[in-house]
Design brief:
8% strand; globular; 60% helix; alpha/beta; DUF5682; four-stranded parallel sheet; 767 residues; three-stranded antiparallel sheet
């Protein structure tokens, strides 16, 4: 068996662990390096030794069947595993990973997820107990947190042998204290760890059987596993036992990673709070000037603050460095730890206010680094296709952790000769819409200020590790972005009977340039059109197709076949309007959206749809008393907006709806409906406000409370300029001074008044 002196226990993502590991390897010159990691991914990890790889990067393993299970192994420049891989490649040592293969790890993960759900309380208590041991270690060493304890006692220990003795001793002591509790409270994790160590021991024995001498083998594993692997009572798995392990079809690939994702602040449990800070530490360790780290770090903080407009002079930086060193000496440290640097920055730069330095601290602690892999190193076809398109469409600069805006002009650029360049923005748009369908969080479309400019699009682009993970997960749908998009939309099309959803798929197929699917979806829409009885679904479908037809031939699609369908959809929805308005308030919200969508189509396509039928239906809803009052008010406001009511007709309807015999909640709901749309058209009709004032003034207390709920909600939709106009109107009606009226109506409510209004929400006004 390999002796303990040839084991090296590591802490993942530790700069000093890597520094001491390289010293250890140089001293041992091993012919064989066995390292913790999925045993079927050795060749993939060795690819990271390519000089063109820029960390942070990650190895991702994932199942090939839905639902997808995945596991990530991230590496920073200073990760011990990454540095060991580089050393092995450079020194031509036999190198292999020795942990459970990915197909087994993922199968066990699937099983454990289900089992852990059944023992949550005991598990939580155990983890609290485990974490408390680390907190106690920090407290006993006069530190406020474990990370400060770790950095002062381990990250600043630059002697390889001493470092190994410390980390292995501490890990064994912690393990001995928790193992019995873990066996009882978290049997799944306990069994998983035991299985992993038994498998790794088998791999070590296999290397010995292959002829490597024990003294020529170095074993690199997490420090927690060292004592387990050296335990004489641990029996290696047999070949038969390995065959009986659960398995799930899996693949593995390499991917760029980010320091933001690596930061434990974003939820990655094995990360650290300051990945970029530890890269700075690594650089100083390599250059043998770690004593300069504090000055480098605080100088960067000062520069960041100055760029943000804060006062951070050179003198303040010098004082901060001195303070950090003094704080470290008070605790017997050789160099300041990150907590000391934060405290010094808070005092000398922030003047005690964390808000002044928080952004700069986060920027220097975490960084914006995103790794990269050489072309062709990504293993899944869909990853390769993605990066090829990024390159072809000249989007490389947007693969960044910084949020950037991309404005596209979808029209042909006639000033260039190359067709590729002439339609580059259009092709970019197609690609970004495909990513949207696949839910790859790289690009988010913004509403452009040119609402009617169908040729213009604006996108927010920002690269995250989640985007890369989503790309890999979509590999189950197809080998390219376009094929995966078509597959996903076709699946949605086959599993929906909602005409609005089908219309949305048609629009997405158009945006994604999926001609065949576009035609298939149109046939599907026509088939279910005659069966649809819901105005909300019909209105949604009408709206989707109308927005599509507005594009014309911009995307080089023939959209003329959509116009007859648009006409038919609009006709059917219009005929359902009156009956649909006989509903309660909950349903009225959806019908309101449908009315707005249909009115948009009526305005934009008045030559293509039956506009007279639409206006006729609006009149019916606006004047009938047996329908939802809010919807009647909404339809009246559309007629007013279109100047389709005379002043006499308007006055008659207002007087009727706000007459003293109408219940308060109905009258208020009607006013809320009429105020939903063009508020300036409403403000121009003094007669309406006079009638509303007269109506409210004659309500008794109970009726007034009923009306107030609706009126409060209605007036919250007016902007400040519109509220000022209301003040002028009411001041004129009441005959009061405008300044006094303004102060009374626009002043902040007292706490008691606010509470009284909030209490009104307890009333049930269902009608």
């Amino acid at each position: 068996m390999v002796e303990s002196k040839n084991f090296f226990g590591v802490r993942h993502l530790s700069a000093t662990t890597s520094y001491n590991l390289l010293q250890f390897l140089e001293a041992k010159k091993p012919k064989c390096i066995l390292m913790e990691g999925p045993s079927d991914a050795t060749d993939l990890l060795l690819e990271l030794a390519n000089k063109n790889v820029i960390p942070p990067v990650a190895l991702m393993a994932y199942t090939t069947e839905l639902p997808i299970q995945s596991v990530l192994y991230p590496f920073a420049l200073y990760s011990p595993e990454y540095q060991a891989t580089l050393w092995a490649k450079k020194n031509k040592s036999n190198f292999r990973l020795i942990d459970l293969p990915t197909e087994v790890s993922l199968a066990l993960k699937t099983q454990s997820d289900a089992e852990l759900a059944e023992q949550q309380e005991a598990l939580v208590n155990y983890r609290l107990f485990h974490n408390d041991l680390y907190d106690q270690l920090a407290t006993l060493n006069w530190e406020t947190d474990y990370e400060s304890y770790w950095e002062r006692k381990f990250e600043h220990c630059l002697d390889s042998q001493s470092y190994q003795e410390r980390i292995c001793y501490q890990s064994q002591q912690i393990r001995d204290m928790v193992i019995d509790t873990e066996r009882e409270a978290d049997p799944v994790s306990f069994a998983h760890n035991y299985l992993r160590e038994a498998y790794m021991k088998r791999q070590i024995e296999q290397a010995l059987l292959e002829g490597f001498a024990a003294e020529d083998i170095v074993v690199i594993v997490g420090a927690y596993h060292v004592s387990g692997l050296l335990d004489q009572n641990l029996t290696a798995l047999t070949e038969k036992e390995c065959e009986q392990l659960p398995k799930q079809n899996a693949l593995a690939t390499l991917m760029p990673y980010s320091y933001y994702r690596l930061s434990s602040r974003t939820g990655y449990g094995a990360g650290n709070k300051a990945p970029y800070y530890f890269e700075l530490m690594w650089q100083h360790l390599v250059n043998n000037n770690v004593s300069d780290l504090a000055a480098n770090y605080l100088s960067r903080i000062g520069k960041e603050l100055r760029e943000k407009g804060f006062n951070a002079s050179t003198a303040s930086t010098i004082e901060a460095v001195k303070l950090a060193q003094a704080l470290s000496h008070l605790k017997g440290g050789q160099y300041p730890v990150l907590k000391d640097l934060h405290d010094a920055a808070l005092t000398c730069f922030g003047e005690g206010q964390w808000s002044k330095i928080a952004e700069a601290i986060n920027h220097i602690d975490i960084g914006t680094n995103i790794g990269s892999l050489p072309k062709g190193m990504s293993k899944t076809p869909i990853q390769k296709d993605f990066y090829e398109q990024i390159n072809t469409l000249k989007l490389d600069e947007y693969v960044s952790a910084v949020d950037q805006v991309l404005t596209l002009d979808l029209r042909e650029n006639i000033r260039v000769k190359s067709q590729e360049i002439a339609f580059r923005d259009l092709n970019r748009s197609t690609f970004l819409h495909q990513l949207t369908v696949l839910e790859i969080p790289f690009a988010i479309e913004k509403n452009t200020y040119q609402q009617n400019a169908t040729w213009s699009e604006q996108w927010n682009l920002r690269w995250t590790t989640e985007a890369e993970i989503a790309i890999i997960e979509n590999s189950l749908l197809g080998e390219t972005i376009a094929i995966a998009t078509a597959f996903k939309l076709k699946e949605q099309l086959d599993h929906t009977s909602k005409i609005g959803m089908v219309a949305n798929i048609i629009r997405q197929a158009y945006n994604c340039n999926l001609t065949h699917l576009f035609e298939t979806a149109i046939i599907r829409l026509q088939a279910i059109l005659v069966e649809t009885e819901e105005i909300t679904d019909l209105a949604q479908a009408t709206f989707e197709l109308a927005k599509l037809v507005q594009f014309g031939d911009l995307r080089q699609f023939d959209l003329l076949p959509l116009k007859p369908i648009l006409r038919q959809l609009f006709l059917r929805a219009s005929l359902l309007l009156v009956d649909s308005c006989n509903c309660d308030q909950k349903a009225a919200d959806e019908v309101t959206r449908a009315i707005d969508q249909l009115n948009f189509v009526a305005q934009e396509f008045y030559e293509d749809v039956d506009i007279n039928l639409w206006i006729e239906q609006l009149h019916k809803v606006a004047t009938r008393d047996d329908l939802n009052y809010g919807l009647s008010g909404l339809c009246l406001s559309i007629l007013l907006e279109r100047n389709l009511l005379t002043e006499v007709q308007c006055t008659q309807e207002v007087n009727r709806r706000l007459s003293h015999g109408v219940p308060a909640d109905l009258a208020a709901a009607w006013f809320e409906g009429i105020a939903r749309r063009n508020k300036y058209a409403l403000l121009s009709r003094v007669m309406l406000w006079e009638q509303l004032n007269d109506y409210v003034a004659n309500l008794d207390e109970q009726q007034y409370m009923h009306a107030l709920v609706f009126l409060r909600r209605t007036f919250s939709g007016f902007d400040q300029a519109q509220k000022n106009s209301i003040v002028e109107l009411l001041s004129s009606i009441w005959g009061t001074d405008i300044e006094v009226t303004s102060e009374e109506l626009l002043s902040e409510l007292s706490e008691e008044q606010t509470q009284t209004l909030d209490d009104l929400n307890d009333f049930d006004f269902d009608f």
